[in-house]
Amino acid sequence: MRAPISIVLDRKGRDVATIRPDATLHVAAQRLSEHEIGALVVTEDDVHVAGILSERDIVRRVAREGTAAMERTVGTAMTSPVTTCTPGTAVDELYRVLTEQRIRHVPVVEAGRLVGIVSIGDLVKWRMEELADEAHHLQDYVRGSY
FRET label pair with 34: which of 18, 19, 49, 134, CA 20 to 30 Å apart? Predict the structure, then answer.
């Protein structure tokens, strides 16, 4: 799977849900729910990645502090520094990184600018589509209809 992450982004889109580090965890939780996603990229300017905030980060904070944690800022709960990749990163390399670091979301950065985000779910979906295409081509080959 030497395919680059840019192929996954081309299929899924390059939109990224972001949040400022001074927003509250309550606002972040609402945004996660609204977009039905598992992580927000933390940025001051929608360009430079300052951190990432996942559902897991919010749950851990609430477990330690109770509901008062929801008034804390994103900056106090986000993960930073952030593991990132580039559009040219190979899919198989990113699978390895996600597995080794036990993370599920990776911002895609090019020349220091945020250009997308991929999740383990995006990679699995892409791979399943690739396998289905391969199976279809093999069936056509066997049938002689290639």
Answer: 49
